[in-house]
Amino acid sequence: MTIIADRFTHLTMELTTEHEMEKREAMMMSDGVTKAAASVRRMLGPNLPKSVYAMSLAYELVRAGFSVEQDKPLTYVQDNAGMDCGCRVDLLVNNVVLVELRAAGELVPADMMQMRTYLALTGLKIGLLVDFGVDAVQRDMVHVVDLFGASA
After folding, report:
1. Considering only 26-30, 31-35, 71-75, 140-144, which range has the smallest mean pLDDT?
2. Distance between CA atoms of 144 and 152, rounded to whole angstroms?
3. Among 84, 93, 103, 126, which has the minimal tally of Cβ within 10 Å of its Cβ?
């Protein structure tokens, strides 16, 4: 019985360690995206169209060594078939962090709901809502949606 308990404890520790490593990696990427977004905001200033910020942020992220997909169609799998749900993700960084951009100056509850829906459909755990319309460069600019602690 002790051998089984020891193996279970070891397996649990491996899974926890793997989960923690995955979360740490995603949070490091999130930090990189946040820094790049702050840099873009300082360079470009306020009141530009979202598309300008998106192109500039994608460029800065690629320059920093990240893999970036822009305006990526969102799909989900049902009965082994990929379904296009008609939504597009602004940026997908390293296939780990979902980034949605705004230039409005204020996020509304629907923005958070949209991010949670996108994360649920993709199975990803970290999403960033970046609002380039805020006055301060980093204060209230990036909102993190972290589903690592959420239970399915």
Report:
1. 140-144
2. 19
3. 84
Helix ranges (DSSP H) in 89-150 = 109-122
Where do the DSSP E strands lie in 24-149? 68-78, 81-93, 97-102, 126-131, 142-146
* Cα 114 from Cα 136, distance rounded (Å): 24
144 vs 70, higher pLDDT? 70
In the chain, where are the structural domains located?
2-146
| Burial 94-117, CB ≥16 within 10 A → b, else e | bebbbbbbbbeeebeeebeebbee
The reply to whether the predicted model has a pTM over 0.90 is no
2-146: CATH topology:
Trna Endonuclease; Chain: A, domain 1 (3.40.1350)
